[in-house]
Design brief:
The complex is a heterodimer of chains A (162) and B (247). Chain A is built from 8 helices and no strands. Chain A has 162 residues and is an all-alpha fold. Chain A has 2 domains: 89 residues, RNA polymerase sigma factor, region 2, helix turn helix motif (Rna Polymerase Sigma Factor, Chain: A, Orthogonal Bundle), CATH 1.10.1740; 73 residues, Winged helix-like DNA-binding domain superfamily/Winged helix DNA-binding domain (Arc Repressor Mutant, subunit A, Orthogonal Bundle). Chain B has 2 domains: 49 residues, no CATH class; 181 residues, no CATH class. Chain B contains 9 helices and 6 strands. Chain B has a 6-stranded antiparallel sheet with strand order 1-6-5-4-3-2, with helices on both faces. Chain B starts with 7 loop residues before the first helix and ends with a helix. The chains are: A mainly alpha (162), B alpha+beta (247).
């Protein structure tokens, strides 16, 4: 019997989409990305070993697909509809002091370099272990740790300044 | 006293609980001695909470269109995989006009079918539709009726949509059963005069008009047909010959 991943896939959808949004920051692209990743997973369900983390497997597929898309986009010149993402990006440049709110944090995360934001989301939001994040990203665990530490120091600096 | 310097990575790993016990103990000792170390650890803990709260607290609801699209993919692929390798018979087949396994067959198809109906159409009952397709009279119709014709059955109007060969060399027919409650699209594969097996069944709100198996309506069916490797429909004499071939 082929591995059936449908139920796991449906369960992980909200988190897949959240990760996709963190990667590409465009809802339209994120939805396309999620759907393509799901198709890819369904085409090769045996790529997942039952007993291992299904979410990490899906994150890896989604991320690989995203990178493939980036290569193509470089050729086709796709522009991100960042304006549609104002719920995440927030208004830029308001000089309000005082209370740190979630918008400040989101804005700070958004200002991180993409590779740092990626690992921050995987570890701090999606609760992957360093090793699991390293597998998703296809980099050594040391790279995960250095990117993650830089991202978090930067996040603290940016939000302290707010 | 010797000052031990801890890298950001080490303190972060401590904050995340991802550090070896022995190193963790020395971090704890340093935190007791040096408030700066404790502050750095606290900052890493705080950054994690911030990120989680900002991005993780309210995962936006998945858009209905995306969810529906993924669920359709799941249905198409995971139900399709049953017949993608027809010789393996991964599940008990539904037999129409055969002697055995009728009861089992209804269950098998309706597992998929009820699931679909429950998701898409709420209250519509899937079971009776599938049971209708298990009517032995339907098997007779599949043996004889040309594509494009409609036959009356006890359960509703049965329209033969097309006859085609699969990539694996099986003979299959696409059919549509119209009942007051809705329309069932199904694929039956088998040997004319011997047995037909329903390999796929689903409810569709009818698009109508297009009697090619790769019709524009019913992407689920299209996906299934693609997976089967359905060849161009047999028409006229070729169809009659294929249907007579099993006798």
């Amino acid at each position: 019997m082929a591995t059936t991943i449908g139920p796991e896939l449906v369960a992980v959808l909200p988190r897949l989409r959240r990760y996709a949004l963190a990667l590409c920051r465009s809802p339209v692209q994120a939805d396309d990305l999620v759907q393509s990743a799901c198709v890819r997973a369904l085409t090769n369900p045996d790529g997942w070993t039952p007993g291992t983390r299904f979410d990490a497997w899906m994150f890896r597929i989604l991320r690989n697909h995203w990178i493939d898309g980036l290569r193509k986009a470089r050729v086709e010149g796709i522009s991100e509809d960042l304006d549609a993402r104002d719920d995440l990006v927030g208004d830029s440049g308001d000089a309000a002091m005082g209370k740190l709110d979630l918008e400040d944090v989101k804005r700070a995360i958004d200002q991180l370099p993409a590779d740092q934001r990626d690992v921050l989301v995987l570890v701090c939001v999606e609760d992957l272990a360093y090793r699991e994040a390293a597998e998703v990203l296809g980099v050594p665990i040391g790279t995960v740790m250095s990117r993650l530490a830089r991202a978090r120091k930067r996040l603290i600096e940016l939000t302290n300044a707010a | 006293m010797a000052q031990v310097h801890f890298s950001d990575e080490t303190l972060m790993a401590y904050a995340d609980g991802e550090i070896e016990e022995s190193v963790g103990r020395s971090v704890e000792e340093a935190m007791e001695r040096d408030p700066a170390v404790a502050r750095r650890v606290a900052a890493f803990q705080r950054s994690r909470r911030l990120a989680k709260t900002a991005l993780g607290s309210h995962a936006e609801p998945v858009p209905a269109a995306l969810k529906a699209a993924v669920e359709a993919e799941i249905r198409a692929r995971e139900s399709g995989s049953v017949v993608a390798f027809p010789t393996l018979r991964r599940r008990l087949p539904a037999v129409i006009g055969g002697l055995a396994a009728l009861a089992a067959s209804v269950v098998v198809v309706s597992v998929f079918f009820d699931d679909y109906v429950a998701r898409e159409n709420g209250a519509v009952a899937g079971g009776p539709m599938v049971a209708a397709l298990a009517d032995p009279a339907v098997g007779d119709i599949l043996d004889r009726a040309a594509s494009g014709t409609t036959a009356k059955t006890r359960s509703g109007d049965l329209r033969l949509v097309s006859t085609f060969m699969t990539g694996a060399g099986s003979l299959c027919r696409e059919l549509t059963l119209t009942q007051p409650a809705g329309e069932t699209q199904a694929i039956a594969c088998g040997t004319p005069g011997t047995e037909w097996t329903i390999t796929f069944a689903t409810l569709e709100t009818s698009g109508g008009g297009d009697y090619e198996p790769a019709g524009a309506d019913g992407s689920l069916l299209d996906a299934y047909l693609a997976e089967l490797g359905a060849e161009a429909p047999l028409t006229g004499e070729a169809e009659a010959k294929a249907l007579a071939g099993g006798k």
